[in-house]
Amino acid sequence: MAIKYDERNRTLTLHTAKTTYQMLIDAFGKVYHLYYGRRIDDVSLASQYVLTDCGFSPNSFENRSHRDVSPDILPQEYAATFSGDYRVSALDLITSEGIMGADLRYLRHEIREGKYALPGLPAAFAGEEKVQTLSLTLHDAATGLEVELLYGVFEASDMLTRAAVFRNAGDSQITLKRALSLCLDIPFGTWELLHFHGRHCMERTAERVPLMHGIQTVSSSRGASSHHHNPFVVLLEEGANEVQGTCLGIMPVYSGNHRTDVEVDQAGSLRVVSGINHEAFSWQLLPGETFFAPEVILCYTGDGLESLSHHYHDFLEQHVIRSLWRDRKRPLILNSWEGMNFDFDTAKVIAFAEEAAQLGIELVVLDDGWFGIRNDDNTGLGDWYANESKLPGGLGPISDAIHGLGMQFGLWFEPEMVNEDSELYRAHPQWALTVPGRPPTMSRNQLALDMGRKDVVDHLYRVMADLIQENHIDYIKWDLNRNLGDLYSHALSPHRQGETAHRHMLGVYDLMERLTRDFPEVLFEGCAGGGGRFDAGMLYYMPQIWCSDDTDAIERLSIQQGTSVGYPLSTVGAHLSACPNQQTGRNTSYFTRAAVAMHGTFGYELDPSHFTEAEKQEIREEIAWYHQLYPLLHEGRLHRLTSLEMREDFTAWEVARRDGSEALVTFVVTRTRANDHGYHVRLRGLAPKARYRIAQAEFEGGRLPREDYLGRQELDALIFTGESLMYAGFTLPPLKGDYPAAQLLFERIP
Ligand code: GLA
């Protein structure tokens, strides 16, 4: 039994394979949080908490003569404003009578088999695993609000999910001003915060900071999860690193305005609250109505950051990603964007595809520019029909030609957006989010459609479904190239405008749900100006997401490394592009570019007609190497061998088979130096007593180091054991040139 109710102690306990989570219901119905951490069986953990009378920390009415019992000090399971707890809260409201806040007390609980679902929202599913749900309902007598806290207990996966449902069981209208999914008190320990910040072309840069007394916030108010603050944070106990120490991950399954606040209070205790960002948010709840807050995926491990990453990787792949493509070999893509931009016609696209076929590309994507009057990024969004002046006869001839070459055909869309200069906007100006009387903010000269409107979603569904059917589309790149600026829906009444951003997100999810359900064979790749919406919510609909518009191999090291903390390699859209790189002007070799891009979905983003014959040969060899490595890269586990903050002169990634039989180690040197002593790493995930050799070594320009080791041994003659590679380590001789790379395939000797 993963969930236990102990009637005598009034504790509710959740167990996963290696963790325990416990709550206590007191005599007055207050629900206290007792513990989330390493597994502890069959005991109440209430005795950890000493009661102290702390000045200016109030008592609940029932405890007015027990000044040492304060909701402001004791860990709460779910904290609301105006409840005697001044720490950051998860719930804030006002009723039509002007009553604010809530005093939440236990109402009932229920233990159910299976995993709860959240209507209209992405959420983890049980799949093959035996999962239990705890439903714990609290209520506030003064307002009639019921808050149902949901806990999904994935015992074997060793993960928990949480969500919250708000029901107006009273007679007044309730306006939710803050309705978060998670409140988690962590009463003891010294913690640090790891978060993933960035900007366009610099997504998910890992930053680890100490916590101050006060509140630290990771959030987005951009209408998308954003390039700037990914909806994922990790709390690490002081001293924790990749391979040891306590880590606690908090990953909202939401692609819109999210927020996670971490507070260190007067007693040094931590509180984390997480869910929909309450900035510019409110939700009207009429009597009888219900509001569902999105899910948050929690992971606790005592075994370091790498273990936390592996937990999230497996969980997202097994319990969040639904696409059939999760288990299929992903096609090797050539995308037209960096190679052709807006400058193409039917003949050029077909010539592009013919070149691609010769290289061994499996799917050609026609990116932006194929529709409406789209010849640059100022016009045409919304008009999802072929640009006849570029593509006479529409998409059919291109699709036929690409399929005729034995490849698949993919198409770019940006469904949630519209240009003023479009048929769609001229016909339906009210379909865009614009504030009456105020000129809209512009971004890439486009406006956001009001996806909260059913007529908008229905229209987009029809147009996209027709195109998929008529043109035999195998893949869709689903882009989003601006953030929401003007939160005003022409379809909502004035007092509901605070609902606009979340309704917008629900409409986006609805459109994705309908298209992915009706076209399960289509491979959908998410995108938002690169990785501006890379989150667990999107992965529920799309198994891969274009990781960044920055395709420079060296910049990609930090972007993909930061991304890898929460998200598996199979989700990371990564392509090899031309040099000098379009974003940075940097030159790197094909080998280095391929080595980095194959730690993702791998593909190309350039014009193959520019290749010389020698380059074509190199690309073919690279592709063969990639196919050879594919099973290892997609079934293996990633180990980040160098620091997350990239303090070394090189970055090393290892992907090892789960049984330790094989491991690929990729080195990319970010700073070559004179008199270098080589690049030392300690491998992980090998069988300690097994013997290993280097089965294949691929170097820049094919140069194998010769007799570089003490004892004058050659690299391919070296024999190791798992423990020698993991505890003593392996040193790669220094490489020369600009950003050189090497890939070594270690193989267990039978
Ligand atoms: C975004 C995407 C790019 C490309 C362009 C097209 O920036 O991230 O890959 O599709 O839009 O306009």
How would you describe the overall organization of this protein?
19% of the residues lie in helices and 29% in strands. The longest helix is centred in the last third of the chain and has 23 residues, at 613-635. The radius of gyration is 27 Å and the shape is globular. The chain is built from 12 helices and 39 strands. Helix 3 (346-359) runs parallel beside helix 4 and helix 9 (553-564) packs parallel to helix 10. It folds into 3 domains: 3-319, Distorted Sandwich (Beta-galactosidase, Chain A, domain 5), CATH 2.70.98.60; 324-546, TIM Barrel (Alpha-Beta Barrel); 650-748, Sandwich (Immunoglobulin-like), CATH 2.60.40. Strand 7 and strand 8 (145-154) form a beta hairpin. The strands form 8 sheets. Strands 6-7-8-9-20-16-15-12-13 form a 9-stranded antiparallel beta sheet. A 9-stranded parallel beta sheet has the order 29-28-27-26-23-22-21-31-30. A 6-stranded antiparallel beta sheet has the order 32-33-34-39-36-37. The chain is an alpha+beta fold and 750 residues long. The protein starts with a strand and ends with a strand.
Number of domains: 3
Strand content: 25-35%
Overall geometry comes to globular
CATH topology name of the largest domain, in short, is Beta-galactosidase, Chain A, domain 5
SSE blueprint and pairings:
Layout: E1 3-6, E2 11-15, E3 19-25, E4 31-38, E5 91-95, E6 105-113, E7 131-140, E8 145-154, E9 159-168, E10 174-179, E11 182-186, E12 191-197, E13 205-210, E14 214-219, E15 233-237, E16 247-252, E17 258-264, E18 270-276, E19 283-285, E20 290-301, H1 304-319, E21 333-335, H2 337-340, H3 346-359, E22 363-366, H4 396-404, E23 408-413, E24 417-419, H5 423-427, E25 446-448, H6 454-471, E26 475-478, H7 500-518, E27 523-526, H8 536-539, E28 544-546, H9 553-564, E29 572-573, E30 576-577, H10 590-597, E31 603-605, H11 613-635, E32 637-640, E33 650-656, E34 662-669, E35 679-681, E36 691-699, E37 719-721, H12 722-728, E38 730-732, E39 741-748
Helix pairs in contact: 3-4, 6-7, 9-10
Bound molecules: alpha-D-galactopyranose.
